[in-house]
Amino acid sequence: MRTSRSKSGLTLIEVMVVVAIAALLLGAAVVSINALTGARARATLGELGATARALYDTAALTGHTCRMVFEMPAGDATGFTYRAECANRAVTASSDREQQLKDENQALADAAKRGARGGSGSPPRSGPSLLDVLSQEKDRVEHFAKFSTFISPEIEPRRVSGVKLSVWTPHQRLPAKSGLAYVYFFPQGSVERAQLTARQGNSVWTLSISPVTGQTTVVDGEMEIPKS
């Protein structure tokens, strides 16, 4: 008569299952802790602060006006992208930032609509018109004032998820929470005063950029918008 042998311990498959379950539970715990403490929002502002300081130095050393460009989704959606741009020379920022942002966002929307329609549908011309020539001359004159993407070891385009960002500068009455937003850096060794607020769940952090020194400070909570 055969007797069955009792199995002691766990098989390799059972051990792997236990490890996988433990890893899932640990990951969920880390995500929950990050959401409660706003760790991702805090870390994001730290990265933005480092980018701002690097761009401050770049503008001062090259003599070119630079800017941080933010693209933020509308509504309550989280996440945003940011990148650095520099002009070919020193240029001033628009004094009416809200109107500038409104015009540029409208231009983006119009371009998207034209693309969806497949173009204007006008027949091709045999040669440039007077308007075409004037437009080309305008483009040539404005070439040095145009901004192009700037990348360095310290400054790279990034996409951030899970964080809701708002951007305020003195040319705006209210922080920009969707669409485009800019922070300018000038060759004279100055930068627009700016406040960048990051939200992750119930956690709120604010990055403040000093206009004279370019120094950045991250504080817990939402800072009050300066009255002047």
Write the CATH fold name of the domain at 39-115 and 145-220. Answer: minor pseudopilin epsh fold
> Which sequence of SSEs, written as H and E, runs from N to C?
HHEEHHEEEEEEEE
**In terms of per-residue confidence, which ranges show pLDDT below 50 for 5 or more consecutive residues?**
1-6, 28-37
Helical content, roughly? 25-40%
Q: How much of the polypeptide forms β-strand, as a percent range?
A: 15-25%
Spatial shape: globular
Mean of pLDDT = 81
CATH architecture of the domain at 39-115 and 145-220: 3-Layer(bab) Sandwich
Backbone CA Rg: 25 Å
* Largest β sheet strand count, sense and barrel closure: 6 strands, antiparallel
* Distance between the amino and carboxyl termini: 96 Å
Please tell me about this protein's structure.
- With 228 residues, the chain is of the alpha+beta class.
- It has a domain of 153 residues: minor pseudopilin epsh domain (minor pseudopilin epsh fold, 3-Layer(bab) Sandwich).
- Strand 1 and strand 2 form a beta hairpin.
- The N terminus is likely disordered.
- 36% of the residues lie in helices and 25% in strands.
Secondary-structure blueprint:
Layout: H1 12-37, H2 39-62, E1 66-72, E2 80-87, H3 97-117, H4 130-141, E3 147-150, E4 158-160, E5 164-168, E6 179-186, E7 190-191, E8 194-200, E9 203-209, E10 216-220
Antiparallel strand pairs: 1-2, 1-6, 2-3, 2-4, 5-8, 6-7, 8-9, 9-10
